[in-house]
Write a structure and sequence with these properties.
By secondary structure, the protein is mainly alpha-helical. The chain has 9 helices and no strands.
Length: 283
């Protein structure tokens, strides 16, 4: 892959800074995209019923400007510096003093750290840029699913196609493995869904999970799917049991599976091959 114009420690520092800025944007996506989707669904339903659609205030990922949800005060640029502004404001709105969720600096810091590791792991090549885009999508999907139990097609489908396009030249795996990975990722969870529904009459997971695993397969190849499924299922089961035992989480209350798939897919990007080889070496 072609080298990037900066190398070494400077590249990692630059990647962390860019990651912090992208993390700030991801916070907006995580908060607003589900609301944008809900508005679109309501408009479509109204259109099907033949009702007149009254356009309210424009609402999208970029409009209106970021503001405090409590006092509606617009957030100034100096108050929107990733992580630093949260610490300077002591986690409270400057206008009304309402608490700011710790989620915001955590997403920013997580994105910055992962972007930095992409630069460190893949070096000054376009692989680092591709990996950064991949992990950014994984972060957004994980937190959206955690909040809403939705995995938006607006992210999963472009992620899937991007994986296939990047692997035309064998960026992370060969094209044949990427195509098979996309198909196998979707079909495997779709089959589990159908069998569970046949056995219990209930839906065990959403269609977004199928598409997310298909996207992971398109990026990493079919060889990585067993690791991703095993790791996400194991962590999901442990967390689910913990929630039931510790927090009295109801057994019939659904637990989103997307965050565990996203976490396993991110681990697979960096360490999937050596972990798989170590696992197979046990046998």
């Amino acid at each position: 892959m072609s080298p990037l114009p900066v190398t070494g420690d400077l590249l990692v520092v630059l990647a962390v800074v860019i990651g912090l800025l992208i993390g700030s944007f991801l916070n907006v996506v995580i908060h607003r995209l589900p609301k944008v989707m809900e508005r679109q669904w309501l408009e479509q339903c109204a259109e099907l019923r033949g009702e007149e659609i009254v356009d309210g205030e424009p609402y999208s990922i970029v409009r209106p400007r970021s503001h405090c949800p409590h006092c509606l005060r617009q957030i100034l640029a100096v108050e929107n510096i990733p992580v630093v502004s949260y610490l300077f404001l002591r986690g409270r709105c400057k206008g009304c003093g309402a608490p700011i969720s710790l989620r915001y600096p955590l997403v920013e810091a997580l994105t910055g750290c992962l972007f930095g590791y992409c630069a460190f792991h893949f070096g000054p090549t376009s692989l680092a840029l591709a990996a950064a885009g991949y992990v950014a999508a994984m972060i957004a999907l994980a937190f959206i699913d955690f909040d809403t139990q939705l995995l938006p097609d607006d992210i999963t489908l472009p992620l899937l196609w991007a994986g296939l396009l990047f692997n035309i030249t064998g960026t992370f795996t060969d094209l044949a493995s990427a195509v098979i990975g996309a198909v196998a990722g979707y079909v495997s969870l779709w089959s589990v869904y159908q069998l569970f529904k046949l056995a219990t009459g209930k839906e065990g997971m959403g269609f977004g999970d199928f598409k997310l695993l298909a996207a992971i397969g398109a990026w990493l190849g079919w060889q990585m799917l067993p690791f991703v499924v095993l790791a996400s299922s194991l962590v999901g089961a442990l967390v689910g049991i913990g929630l039931i035992v510790v927090t009295k989480h109801g057994r019939n209350v659904p637990i989103p599976f997307g965050p565990y798939l996203a976490a396993a897919g991110t681990i697979g990007l960096f360490w999937g091959k050596p972990l798989t080889q170590a696992y197979l070496g046990l046998f």
